[in-house]
């Protein structure tokens, strides 16, 4: 089968439509993940029994495939009365899945703030809220910004899973087009190439971010890379 | 549901479970090999070797396993490569986590303090001697947990193969769902199975990490 | 209170050929745009004990790092026994040194670090025998025999099978010294080797330096803040500031009658910080 540029051109509008959905889904799911993640981490710190429940839940979410979680929200929730449109189900699924990772990142960031900081805040009589806002969070976030950026990229790359619950994202359109015309090469390669390009640019962006935040180290072995 | 359906139902799931485990282990083998080679290549002295490794890593990290699997499954035959769906999946998933593993190797090696490497320099060890006797042994206990996380991600990624008709756990669950109209049952079961498998990998990783601390000991020979 | 280290005999070495001459000629080195060494020249005679003192940032450690081939100089020449360390002659051409050349030159140079840098994944004896076995193709048994001798030299004969993380700072540093000695270099470099030690552990390490210098005709270059020790031990002292040699001479001259204002200022600060220089400062 020969590569056909005219075919590429003809399916481009469909694929771009799909790309828009992909971006929408990413931009909706990621903030959801961050907010839920922060809530999860805050809940975990609020007491030992809640901590165990939260740990169990996040472990479960992180330890089971996103695909199944999407299936559950789209196919099972209606059985208990929650019928969500596909995109909403997809965004919810990805948001919840990635909130478990976000919670871990928040945790790492908060724990990286030395104990001495909390103590110093106490002796100058700051309230808990003030301590969080002015002392802890600014110091906690900086080292983990690259982790957050990397999870954003990872979420973006996993959006093709949405196509399996009938969402016409980039992958969904590609599969639809491929099935309709019985030509798989062009759609698949285009999708792969598009993700690769976005990923490379985003990856370079994250490295730039790390350097700007002075988070890289100079190492005799690493310099050769 | 009659007793008959129950046993069939669980039997099908069990078959799917075995396929999932086989797939995971095979891909893990491929991935570990790829990660070792590409990871060490990444810190090589020769620019061409480093570049080759970098290309491999960026390519496979550049898109999700889902996209790569589909692309390989539909496109390899056109390149004249005829693989079974299973082999195709093992190859793609293996190379995919190999790419992440290679970065883990690099991080683990870089996590060993530069001072250690300088001590090797002043003792006039060659680069390879330094890596083998001093750096890699110290990198191993750092690397093992990272690989362990990778393995869990791999386990989760195997669920995608259900979409290219490989009869793994997810596929069988969908099958049962269509046959019985029962959605909660199959999914509840497979969620539990995946979770248990993930926990097993976690426990295995911890054990391996403990072992790797002991194995990291170097004796001059 | 630990027993004082067993000094003296240990392993008797054949007197090495009188090598170990070092020359720096107009050496330049900058890190990240900041010039640390600018047109630095000095020399060290074979077998000489040289102490390098000066404020932090003066380039003292850089000198050692360039000599130990850890960093490459930006300009100038470093000669070891008349042979260039960082450049080699290929037929007609003078080219930057290859790894092979550096490997060859390194056989004469040993270094002890401020932070010891022992290999945590090996016992003490393995730390000491690793390099001789790998780089000098020594048989393990022979390396262990000799290694035991070096351990005796530094007063740690009983720690042969100990793990580095069970040792005190002073013990770690003594193992590090034994490890460097095991390669029998003609030039030994010591980069502030007591600066990271608790005060009560400093003496044992300095005693070891004294004892190993007695048995051997090695060139020894010490970057140190231990002024009293430098005064006793060194044949010659160099005071560095701002990447250049400000003053050099015998210890009594530098410590007793410094001719440069900067030297005087530096030494006064050191005295104020509590270092005993055992002698009046002019």
What would a concise description of this structure say?
The complex is a heterotrimer of chains A (225), B (221) and C (282). Chain A has 225 residues and is mostly helical.
What this model shows, in words?
The complex is a heterotrimer of chains A (225), B (221) and C (282). Chain A has 225 residues and is mainly alpha-helical. Chain A has one domain: MetI-like fold (Orthogonal Bundle), CATH 1.10.3720. Chain A is built from 8 helices and no strands. Chain A has helices at 5-45, 48-63, 66-76, 86-111, 115-123, 128-158, 170-181, 185-212. The radius of gyration of chain A is 21 Å and the shape is flat. The two termini of chain A are 40 Å apart. By secondary structure, chain B is mainly alpha-helical. Chain B has one domain: Orthogonal Bundle (MetI-like fold). Chain B contains 8 helices and no strands. In chain B, α7 runs antiparallel to α8. The longest helix of chain B is centred in the first third of the chain and has 40 residues, at 3-42. The N and C termini of chain B lie far apart (66 Å). The mean pLDDT of chain B is 90. In chain C, 34% of the residues lie in helices and 24% in strands. In chain C, the strands form 3 sheets. Chain C has a 6-stranded mixed β-sheet, sandwiched between helices. Chain C has a 4-stranded antiparallel β-sheet with strand order 2-1-4-5, with helices on one face. Chain C has a two-stranded antiparallel ribbon with strand order 6-7. In chain C, β1 (22-31) and β2 (34-44) form a beta hairpin. Chains A and B meet through α2, α3, α7 and α8 of A and α2, α3, α4, α5 and α6 of B.
Low-confidence stretches of chain C: 1-12
Largest sheet of chain C: 6 strands, mixed
CATH topology-level fold name of chain A: MetI-like fold
Determine the structural class of chain A based on helices, strands and strand pairing. mainly alpha
**Uncertain segments of chain A:** 220-225
CATH superfamily annotation of chain A: MetI-like
The run of helices and strands of chain C is EEEHEEEEHEHHHEHEHEEHH
Q: On the 0-100 scale, what is the average pLDDT of chain A?
A: 87
Number of strands of chain A: 0
* Secondary-structure-derived class of chain C: alpha/beta
Topology:
The complex is a heterotrimer of chains A (225), B (221) and C (282).
Chain A: H1 5-45, H2 48-63, H3 66-76, H4 86-111, H5 115-123, H6 128-158, H7 170-181, H8 185-212
Chain B: H1 3-42, H2 47-61, H3 65-75, H4 85-111, H5 114-122, H6 127-157, H7 169-180, H8 184-215
Helix pairs in contact in B: 1-2, 1-4, 1-6, 1-7, 2-4, 3-4, 4-6, 5-6, 6-8, 7-8
Chain C: E1 22-31, E2 34-44, E3 49-53, H1 60-67, E4 75-80, E5 83-84, E6 87-90, E7 93-96, H2 99-106, E8 109-112, H3 124-135, H4 140-153, H5 169-181, E9 187-191, H6 199-215, E10 219-223, H7 227-233, E11 236-241, E12 244-249, H8 251-256, H9 261-272
Parallel strand pairs in C: 3-10, 3-11, 8-9, 9-10
Antiparallel strand pairs in C: 1-2, 1-4, 4-5, 6-7, 11-12
């Amino acid at each position: 089968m020969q590569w056909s540029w005219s075919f590429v051109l003809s399916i481009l509008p469909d694929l771009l439509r799909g790309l828009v959905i992909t971006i929408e889904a990413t931009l909706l799911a990621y903030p959801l993940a961050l907010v839920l993640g922060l809530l999860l981490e805050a809940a975990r710190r609020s007491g030992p029994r809640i901590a165990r429940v939260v740990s169990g839940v996040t472990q479960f979410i992180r330890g089971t495939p996103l695909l199944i979680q999407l299936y559950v929200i789209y196919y099972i929730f209606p059985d208990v009365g929650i019928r969500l449109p596909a995109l909403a189900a997809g965004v919810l699924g990805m948001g919840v899945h990635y909130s478990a990772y976000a919670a871990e990142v928040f945790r790492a960031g908060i724990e990286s703030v030395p104990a001495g900081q909390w103590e110093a805040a106490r002796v100058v009589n700051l309230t808990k809220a003030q301590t969080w806002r002015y002392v802890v969070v600014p110091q906690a976030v900086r080292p983990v910004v690259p982790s957050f950026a990397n999870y954003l990229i990872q979420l973006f790359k996993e959006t093709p899973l949405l196509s399996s619950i009938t969402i016409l994202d980039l992958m969904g359109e590609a599969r639809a087009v491929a099935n309709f015309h019985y030509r798989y090469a062009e759609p698949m390669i285009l999708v792969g190439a598009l993700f690769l390009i976005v990923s490379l640019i985003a990856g370079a962006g994250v490295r730039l971010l790390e350097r700007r935040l002075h988070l890289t180290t100079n190492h005799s072995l690493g310099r050769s890379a | 549901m009659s007793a008959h359906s129950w046993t069939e139902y669980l039997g099908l799931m069990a078959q799917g479970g075995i396929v999932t485990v086989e797939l995971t282990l095979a891909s893990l083998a491929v991935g570990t090999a790829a990660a070792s080679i590409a990871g060490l290549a990444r810190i090589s002295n020769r620019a061409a070797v480093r570049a080759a490794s970098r290309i491999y890593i960026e390519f496979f990290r550049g898109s999700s396993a889902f996209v790569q699997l589909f692309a390989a499954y539909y496109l390899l035959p056109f390149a004249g490569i005829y693989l079974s769906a299973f082999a195709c999946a093992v190859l793609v998933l293996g190379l995919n986590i190999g790419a992440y593993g290679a970065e883990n190797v690099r991080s683990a090696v870089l996590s060993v303090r530069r001072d250690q490497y300088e001590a090797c320099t002043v003792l006039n060890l060659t680069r390879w001697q330094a890596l083998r006797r001093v750096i890699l042994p110290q990198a191993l206990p750092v690397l093992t947990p990272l690989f362990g996380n990778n393995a869990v991600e791999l386990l989760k990624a195997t669920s995608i193969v259900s979409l290219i008709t490989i009869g793994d756990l997810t596929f069988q669950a969908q099958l049962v769902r269509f046959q019985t109209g029962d959605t909660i049952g199959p999914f509840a079961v497979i969620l539990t199975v995946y979770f248990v498998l993930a926990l097993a990998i976690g426990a295995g990783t911890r054990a391996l990490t403990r072992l790797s601390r002991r194995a990291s000991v170097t004796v001059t020979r | 209170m630990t027993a004082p280290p067993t000094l003296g005999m240990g392993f008797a070495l054949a007197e090495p050929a009188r090598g170990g001459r070092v020359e720096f000629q107009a050496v330049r080195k900058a890190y990240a745009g900041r010039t640390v060494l600018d047109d630095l020249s000095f020399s060290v005679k074979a077998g000489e004990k040289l102490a390098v003192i000066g404020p932090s940032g003066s380039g003292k450690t850089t000198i050692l790092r360039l000599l130990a081939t850890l960093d490459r100089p930006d300009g100038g020449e470093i000669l070891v026994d008349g042979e260039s360390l960082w450049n080699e002659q290929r037929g007609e051409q003078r080219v930057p040194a290859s790894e092979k050349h550096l490997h060859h030159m390194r056989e004469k140079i040993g270094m002890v670090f401020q932070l010891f840098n022992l290999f945590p994944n090996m016992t003490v004896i393995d730390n000491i025998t690793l390099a001789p076995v790998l780089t000098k193709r020594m048989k393990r048994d022979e390396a262990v025999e000799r290694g035991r001798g070096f351990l005796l030299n530094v007063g740690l004969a009983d720690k042969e099978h100990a793990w580095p993380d069970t040792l005190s700072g002073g013990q770690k540093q003594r193992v590090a010294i034994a490890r460097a000695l095991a390669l029998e270099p003609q030039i030994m470099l010591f980069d502030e080797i007591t600066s990271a030690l608790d005060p009560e552990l400093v003496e044992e390490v300095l005693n070891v330096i004294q004892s190993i210098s007695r048995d051997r005709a090695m060139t020894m270059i010490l970057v140190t803040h231990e002024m009293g020790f430098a005064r006793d031990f060194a044949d010659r002292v160099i005071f560095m500031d701002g990447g250049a040699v400000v003053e050099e001479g015998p210890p009594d001259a530098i410590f007793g009658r410094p001719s440069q204002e900067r030297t005087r200022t530096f030494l006064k600060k050191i005295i104020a910080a509590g270092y005993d220089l055992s002698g009046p400062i002019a």
